[in-house]
Sequence to fold (277 residues):
Amino acid sequence: MKGGIVVSLYVMALAATSLAGQAQAQAAQQRQFTMTATDFSFVGPEQVPSGMTAVEVLNQGAEVHHAQLVRLAPGKTPADFAAAMKVDPGHPPNWVSFVGGPNAVVPGDRATAVMDLQPGQHLVLCLIPNKTGVAHVALGMVKPFMVTEAVGTRMTEAKPDVVITARDFQFVLSKPITAGSHTIQLVNEGTQAHEVVLVKLPPDAKAKDFIAAFEPGAGAPPRGRPQGGIVGIERGAQGLFTAQFDPGRYALICFFPDSKTGAPHFAQGMTWEFDVR
Ligand SMILES: [Cu+2]
Fold:
């Protein structure tokens, strides 16, 4: 009798431990997902819960890719998006909101951005152009996914140690970036959507040398290596990414098009070069 109680208490303790473990594992799983990019499609989840989420892009293609998340206006469907893109290839319609995502990485690399996802119909897009200037989204790099109302605990947000503020049209750093791993927050205080692409430059290169490789018809490979960042976010929005900084030269670049002229923001000075020592 006494032994029975001891055993059942032990079993209950075991059950409680494994339940807590399961809940933890579930919370961790719910708040992370990967979009795998190839030339030219995305593979990833159909449905994810809302809230703070670590979104990873894994580049298994032969070109540079990113994972731009957009939320569709209520009532709009992925079919509406496809129809709009047929009319104006490469330019998402004005009823999508840019909600960030991990920025560009080279083949074989991955990058993560932590975004606060709201419930609704979403798409993941790659807006990077190919050698003839056609955005990858027009070549098939668009995948719908649904963000559903989350139940349970929210992921605790990592504290940034550096803040990059995006304005029309410049980046302002809260402090110089030093060697090592940093959690960086991008805050959009501009009036338009902005992004940040983090690029490791060769010692003698400038941001414009990297940009030149993405002009239509450019033959040479990019001078520099994109290492993530955060794709387009709307005014007032923010996101987090982590990056490892080895000593050397870096650039922050915004490729987002001006809402009136369509010219990329870097053409209006939205680049920032810095040395990490
Ligand atoms: Cu911008």
In short: Confidence is low (pLDDT under 50) at residues 1-17, 19-30. Residues 194, 254, 256, 265, 270 surround copper (II) ion (CB under 6 Å). Residues 2-30 form the longest helix (29 residues). DSSP finds three helices and 17 strands in the chain.
